[in-house]
Amino acid sequence: MEQNKYSLVIVGFGGMGSYHVQLIEPCERLAVTGVYDVVDYRLELGAAKGFKTYDSLEAVLSDETVDVVLIATPNDVHKDIAIRALTAGKHVICEKPVTVDSADLSDILEVAKETDRVFMVHQNRRWDEDFLIIQDLIEKKKIGEVFHLESRVQGANGIPGDWRQLKAYGGGMLLDWGVHLLDQLLLLTGSKIDSVTAELSTILGTEVDDGFTSFIRFKDGLTAVIEVGTTNFIKLPRWYVKGTEGTAIIRDWDLSGEIVVNNPDVAKVEPKPIQAGQGLTKTMAPPSEESTLRLPIEKAQSTKQSFYDNFVSVIEGKSEPLVKNEEVHRVLRLIETIFEAAEKRAVLKDLEL
Ligand code: NAD
């Protein structure tokens, strides 16, 4: 440690690895000092930014000035690098999905325990503003008791054309974006999961899923649709949430959306029938303007990204990790359950999850 800062080396200096440099900048107690990548060009980019470059992982791990290894390689090698780094006495931050299955994560955690090193997974989308708004809305019961939610990310550009298309690298959208949406979902309820069913999308003909739709029922009755798509020329909303007193929608990353709730000060007004196609309907008429309130999506209280500060605090024994390894392990078990449900075309019930 130099000047009261932990020295951190990024292993895998690609898209996300280089983005970490700017994310870590504001953290007063962590300094990116070096990079290692298997591609020379990526090392040259690191050198151009003034970082020390290493020509092997062994060189990183035998450098006693290095305190922390941050893993931002493709998913298949996270486990090996993590175990070697922990064994060499380094603390580790690992990108998501931490591993391609939950047994691999258990192996890493065993080594972290034996070596008494901190191992934390970068589940950064826990600090996304759209998620924080939904979390706040549920906690404060702004639309009553939430009984159903739908969380989606959709694009029209297919799977980025590299390792994400290949099974051997831990590719596919369930492991890539699914891990974020499922991590967020499990933070929205304290309930255990009751049942899971799912369908993987393979429209693009890749050997991995180009998206998926899953339907998850919790033991407390909450139901959720979690969906990732890469073949959607028109998107569905990012969030659609139904509660006993209203409905909330967040359409996109720009946080456009609205909340419609029963007005507690006005007695319910019977809706008037509307013309719908060739018929009239009262059932499908919008709620009356008089007895409902239309509220804007309000900014969340705090969106400060505190992952790295927390990591340092955990190393120093001052805080509990904000991303707990048990939570990450549960998300991986849910992903395995989704793969199994899709393969069997079944509703998997009586889950210990
Ligand atoms: P990328 O392909 O842009 O970068 C990966 C880099 O790792 C490349 O430069 C590659 O040469 C290097 N590499 C490959 N094998 C290596 C090895 N054995 N040792 C050292 N370097 C190696 O991929 P990316 O989009 O940056 O994704 C990297 C990781 O970050 C993945 O796990 C991905 O899921 C994750 N990621 C997370 C987020 C997030 O928001 N948390 C966003 C994007 C990617």
From TrEMBL:
Superkingdom classification of source: Bacteria
Pfam family, one: GFO_IDH_MocA_C3
InterPro entries, sorted: Gfo/Idh/MocA-like_OxRdtase_N, Gfo/Idh/MocA_oxidoreduct, GFO_IDH_MocA-like_dom, NAD(P)-bd_dom_sf
Domain Gfo/Idh/MocA-like oxidoreductase N-terminal: 8-122
Domain GFO/IDH/MocA-like oxidoreductase stretches: 134-248
GO molecular function terms noted in the UniProt entry: nucleotide binding
Name recorded for this polypeptide: Dehydrogenase
Classification of source organism: Bacteria, Bacillati, Bacillota, Bacilli, Bacillales
